[in-house]
Amino acid sequence: MSEELKETQEVVSLPRINEPAPQFTAKTTHGELSLSDFKGKWVILFSHPADFTPVCTTEFLGFAKLYDEFKKRNAQVIGLSIDSIYSHIAWVRNIKEKFGVEIPFPIIADLDMKVAKAYGMIHPQASDTSAVRAVFIIDPNQVLRAMVYYPLTNGRSIEEILRVLEALQTTDKYGVATPENWHPGEPVIVPPPQTADDAEKRVKEEGLEIVDWYFSKKKL
């Protein structure tokens, strides 16, 4: 195997859901931070291709708008791009000046790409000099619970990221699953029975919205 191929495989290696999130210590706009600093909190780690770009600016405005909602859910938002700390500071100041919005969360300056490579944010076919739009949701035990990648050209829905966080927290608290486009207050999915006897009991169980033995919902 050529060295070039080995390097490419290393760059695009991805972390895996339900495994420990890659640890890091990095320089940010709020000083040096480590992932371990946030143990006991949920972490929303997201990458953007570059500072001073229009799509990324809209996403930063979206994260700032919902920042308090993430805080209410014990979640810390952290941004990242392969730009310098000085670029980050200048961009944050520019957003405040031009849009009147404070960016309240830290932004990692990942010039050496260590964090980006650890999280599989560098996709050579998209760009070998920028991190793609990626989002990683890390739980209080520092386990990676969800990740989504987007192309450079299309912005994310920050409300959807918040929705996924709420769904994961509901799953952890109640031991249930959530259906398509679930929002708090809506019925959740009860895990299906694991034996024939339990399946027979399920179809007779009260307090559930039962479609069939394997498909039941309930209100929390």
What does it look like?
With 220 residues, the chain is of the alpha+beta class. The protein has two domains: 3-155, Glutaredoxin (3-Layer(aba) Sandwich); 175-220, Antioxidant, Horf6, Chain A, domain2 (Antioxidant, Horf6, Chain A, domain 2). 33% of the residues lie in helices and 21% in strands. The protein has seven helices and ten strands. Strands 5-4-3-6-7 form a five-stranded mixed sheet. A three-stranded antiparallel sheet has the order 8-10-9, with no helix packed on it. A two-stranded antiparallel ribbon has the order 1-2.
Q: Give the overall pLDDT as a whole number.
A: 91
Q: Which regions are unreliable across 5 or more consecutive residues at pLDDT < 50?
A: 1-11
User: How many distinct beta strands?
Assistant: 10
* Second CATH tier, the architecture of the largest domain: 3-Layer(aba) Sandwich
SSE order: HEEEHHEHEHEEHEHEE
**CATH class wording of the largest domain:** Alpha Beta
Topology of this protein?
Blueprint: H1 3-12, E1 25-28, E2 31-34, E3 42-47, H2 54-65, H3 67-72, E4 75-81, H4 85-99, E5 107-109, H5 114-118, E6 133-138, E7 144-150, H6 158-174, E8 188-189, H7 196-202, E9 209-212, E10 215-218
Parallel strand pairs: 3-4, 4-5
Antiparallel strand pairs: 1-2, 3-6, 6-7, 8-10, 9-10
Q: What's this model, at a glance?
A:
By secondary structure, the protein is of the alpha+beta class. It contains 7 helices and 10 strands.
Which terms would index this structure?
five-stranded mixed sheet; three-stranded antiparallel sheet; disordered N terminus; alpha+beta; 220 residues; Glutaredoxin; elongated; 7 helices; Antioxidant, Horf6, Chain A, domain 2
